[in-house]
Design a protein that fits this description.
elongated; alpha+beta; 17 strands; single chain; 2 domains; six-stranded mixed β-sheet
């Protein structure tokens, strides 16, 4: 029988398969590879070398600038930067990486800022997000998106969930049972406070079984708060959040690997001691129903 938990951690308990020796994967070499690409990007830009710069992209990579102009494919990227360098001599680029994350063996991301200065002393700072893909053992840029410097913030829509920020765990030191899965969550704001980002890991008897990321944001077309969750096993869950007094109701949909869809209704509230209390109800796979569950997350900082 499967065990179900809130929104971003369903997959933690669906299949418990410990990693080798029960250790978190060592991603240091992958992270260094991303840093090396970032450094090579800066060198190629400062040398005005469009060919070397484009070679850092995957053949199907894409670049989106601040005006939302999309350039698709390595060849088009090389052509666009070649024209740019021809018309803008002597520019110098400095890249600051604020966060690098390796999602799994094939996907990674980087967030940060760039500063471009010209010979006349003028400069411009831009925020960016980048995705990387590992193909045949080689990391490459899959996409780079420049973000508007004055991007509108959706903070007013999300501030009711600000209390979720921080580090949390389901671990209960006074009542820990052998074989029980413990979930750890770190929640923080993205740039411009447009998203709440929750990074989670699941462990059983100290062995990591799954990790992933959830983004909670304002969905302007429907005027609702939504969440999108992704884990290392390829799972994805979409949730629609609605306030209900001091509680939040989250309707979730998950596409299972076997082609079925799992739906549930979750109720999030704050406990008397500041805990996150998640009640998972109305769990259905087709017409098969599952018992309601309650999970408590305690703040660690």
């Amino acid at each position: 029988m499967k065990i179900f938990v809130p929104t971003f951690v369903f997959a933690c308990l669906l299949t418990v398969v410990p990693l080798a020796e029960g250790q978190t994967p060592d991603r240091s070499q992958d992270e260094q590879a991303i840093r090396n690409i970032t450094a090579a990007y800066g060198r190629a830009f400062n040398q005005g070398d469009a060919k070397a710069l484009a070679a850092l992209w995957a053949p199907d990579g894409e670049y989106v600038d601040q005006t939302a102009t999309l350039i698709s494919g390595r060849d088009e990227i090389e052509h666009a930067f070649g024209n740019f360098f021809d018309n803008n001599k002597g520019l110098k680029l400095n890249i600051k990486a604020d966060k690098i994350g390796v999602v799994n063996d094939e996907l990674a991301f980087e967030m940060g800022s760039t500063n471009v200065s010209s010979p006349d002393g003028k400069s411009r700072t831009t925020q960016f997000s980048a995705n990387f893909v590992n193909r045949n053992g080689k990391w490459m840029l899959l996409s780079v998106h420049e973000l508007p410097n004055k991007a509108p913030s959706q903070y007013d829509h999300l501030k009711g969930l600000e209390w979720l920020t921080g580090n949390w765990t389901t671990r209960d030191p006074g009542n820990q049972k052998p074989g029980e899965t413990v979930i750890a969550v770190s929640c923080f704001w993205s740039g411009n406070q447009n998203f709440l980002i929750r990074e989670f890991s699941c462990a059983t008897d100290g062995k990591i079984t799954n990790m992933g990321t959830q983004r909670i944001g304002w969905h302007a077309p429907t005027k609702t708060i939504r969440s999108w969750s992704f884990d290392n096993k390829g799972g994805s869950i979409m949730g629609v959040w609605k306030p209900d007094g001091k509680k939040w109701i989250v309707n979730t949909e998950e596409a299972l690997n076997n082609g079925q869809e799992l739906t549930s209704v979750e109720i999030l509230s704050q406990g008397s001691n500041g805990e996150q209390v998640w009640q998972v109800t109305d769990q259905l796979i087709g017409e098969q129903a599952f018992p309601d569950k309650t999970y408590t997350f305690r703040r660690q900082n």
